[in-house]
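Today's session is about reading a structure prediction critically. Students often jump straight to the picture, but the first step is always the sequence itself: look for stretches that repeat, for charged clusters, for runs of hydrophobic residues. Only then move on to the predicted structure, which in these notes is written as discrete structure tokens rather than atom positions. Here is the chain we will use throughout the hour.
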Amino acid sequence: MKKLIAIILILCSCLSLFACGDEKYPPAPSTDEEAEVMMTFSYEDEKYEIKYELYRALFLNLSGEYDGGNRDFWKSDAASVAKADINERIISLAADIFATLHIAKAIGFNPYSKDVNEQISEYVENSVDGSDDGEFEGFGGDYDAYLASLKAKNMNYSVQTLLLRYSIAYDAVIEYYTGTVDSENPTTDMESGSLEFTKGDVRAFYDGELSARVSLIVINSTYIPKETAAARRDAIASAPTRDEALAKAIQLTSGTPSDILDGVVIGKHSLDAAYYSKVTSTALELEVDEVSELIEVISADTSEYWILYKLDKTEEYFNENYDAIEDVYISERIGEIIENAKSEIIKSKSAKAAFEELDLSGISM
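Below is the predicted structure for this chain, in token form.
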């Protein structure tokens, strides 16, 4: 499941904290409008803010579920319920970000350190120029094209770079709790994680209602239109048997064959809620052999549609995939820690006048 914990669509705004004079591509500053504070939070002597650029990014990536692309919807009488719902989701997503940053600091990792700043600068440079190992295709050194690509994802530079800061902090939290022990490639500096548990704990998690086993089917939405992806989903769902459905999934999508045929386990808290909340809720709600609708998953690096096919949790799968299930269990425990901090952060929210006066119909990049 670690491969599912990738760079996440998480957004926050504090660009000035890491700007450096010797960066190849200097930060593109936020406008006064983008930097305006919408809402504040406090937790254990730490302060957090949702700025307009963060709100805008989250709103634009969720709003289509409500308005279908018609911004005039937000002026209608029906919009009041939708506005309350989307704002609740935005606050929840932002609180996931803040909770992870908070926990990273609590375990002794500084998300705003010089080392983290250098990692972010290196990522931006590779994103613009491309990398020798082929991991980053790049924009041929065209910084404006890079910034335009961020805008197409409803982000500005500040949101993008702090997405990376969050991602680095999230990895640090994972490593702290899981450890760095690798029996196949041992090193002298390996350390065990801080979580304690038994195989019985893992088994109880696997058998319980807070986990699900699903085939993970992926379609690259950068190159495949939504209509085509939906047609492929329907072809999978209409297959008469499970074997035929999964064979069709391998044929029609770019998903990893083992993830499709064998499936993966997802827990209620095992994936980062700020990015995978829809994936998680869908996995837990599906019935065995039911196929999900398309789930849009967007990150800093990729844009995908995910389809979940619910599988049953068998004894054979548990025995043959115990190590992977244990990883998911650990991620579940970490997710619970983040969730607890998130709940406390949300309790402290305080909206600014700018938030109360937002005209949702006018929000755009």
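Discussion point for the tutorial: Residues 1-21 have pLDDT under 50 and may be disordered.
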